[in-house]
Amino acid sequence: xxxxxxxxxxxxxxxxxxTPFHAVETMTKHLQAAGFSPLQEGDDWPVPQAGSxxxxxxxxxxxxxxxxxxxxxSPVSSGFRMVGAHTDSPCLKVKxxxxxxxxxYFQLGVExxxxxxxxxxxxxxxxLAGRVSYQNDQGQLCSALIDFERAIAVIPSLAIHLDxxxxxxxxxxxxxxxxxxxMRSDEPSTDFRELLLAQLTLQHPAVKATKIxxxxxxxxxxxxxxxxxxxxxxxxxxxxxxxxxxxxxxxxLLTAGEQNCVLVxxxxxxxxxxxxxxxxxxxxxxxLRRLLASESDFVRAMDSSVMISVDNAHGVHPNFSDKHDGxxxxxxxxxxxxxxxxxxxxxxxxxxxxxxxxxxxxxGQPVQAFVVRSDMGCGSTIGPITAGELGVKTVDIGVPxxxxxxxxxxxxxxxxxxxxxxxxxxNQAGDMTVS
Length: 435
Description:
GO terms for molecular function: aminopeptidase activity; metallopeptidase activity; zinc ion binding. The protein is built from 11 helices and 20 strands. With 435 residues, the chain is an alpha/beta fold. β16, α9 and β17 (367-370) form a beta-alpha-beta unit.
C-alpha cells in the first residue's frame, strides 16, 4: 500500500467511525475480510496447538476490540508483538433525560466526555450517533447502532455585541452554554426517545422496534476529514486522537506474517481506562491468557513480548512554541514520536525506546522524541496501564498533532504512513530483547 492509498483509506475510516461503537464495527469488517474469525468471551475456546496459525478477534461492549494473528510460532518463546490504541475521543454525550424547551427552541442537555476543548464546538454543523437499546415487537431486548449522518444540531455562539469581552475573557460553562439547538418547537415537551425510535426504524426497518429503553449517543462534526495545505501536507479531521492510531495498528496487523501479532483498541482511555472495556480492565489479559495452555506459559510469553502503545503526541505549535521543552518539540511530517516521562506517565524506557529506534532505522523512517516541560503536567496513555496489567515491556509512541482534544485536529499527511511502515517491521521482528 502506498502513501496515497493509505491516506485515502484513513479518511474513509475516520468518516465511518463517529463513535467508538462505529469504529469497532468498521474494524471488524476489515478483519473479517482478511480472514479473522470472531470469538465470544462466553464460549469455551480451544487452545491453539503448537505450530498452528489462527486469526481471531474479540469485541467487548461493542466499543473495544482485541485481534490476534497467531503466526504458528509458540508465543511462549517468540512472544507477542502488540500494538495498543484507544477508540474513544472527547465529545458531548446526550444526558438520560435531555429534553430542554426554552423560548420555543428544542435543545438537548449534554455531558462533557473527557478533556474536551469546548470553544471549537460552537457554530459547527453537528450530527448524532451511537448505540441504542430497544424492545422489539417480540418483547426482546436488543441494541443497534444509529447515525443521523446529516447536520441536525448546532451550538450558536453569543454575538460579540452581547459580550464585548468575548475575545479576552469568555469562559464556557459546560452546563448552560453548550446544549445543542435542534429545532424550533412550540410543543411544551418533545420526547427524545420517540425521535430516536423514528431514526432507528428508518435506519434498521427490519428490527421492528417498539420502544427505546436507553442509549449512548454523542454529537459529532459532520465536516468530513480532508487532506489540506498548499502542498497537501496535513490531515484535518475529528477524532484523530486516537482513531488515527487505531487505523495504523489495524493496517499493520492486516499485513502481519508469521509472527504472533496483537492489536488492542480500548474504550474509555479519555476518562481513565478503569472499566470492563478499558485498558485497566481485564480484557486483554483475559484474551491472551486463554490462548495459552497455562499461567506459566502466559508469564513466559509476556517476558518475550513488546507492546507499542500508540497515542497522538503534541507537535510543537508555531504560535505557541514556548509551551514545549526547547529540545523536544516534535514537528509534523518528521516521523513518529517516542514519548518519555520520568514519572511513568509514559511507559517508555531506554530499552524499549532503543528497540523502536532500531525498527525505525530498519524501516528507513525518521523518529522524534517528546518530553513535557518540567514545569508543566504530563498526560498519559494506555501504555503504563497495560504494562502494569501484563508485565510487558512497553514503549509509548505517537504521531505529532495540533489541536488535540478539539472537535477538529491536525496531523501531518506523511506521519501515519511512516509509523505504519515501522509497525510492519515490528510485526516481522525476531528477537525483541536487548542483551
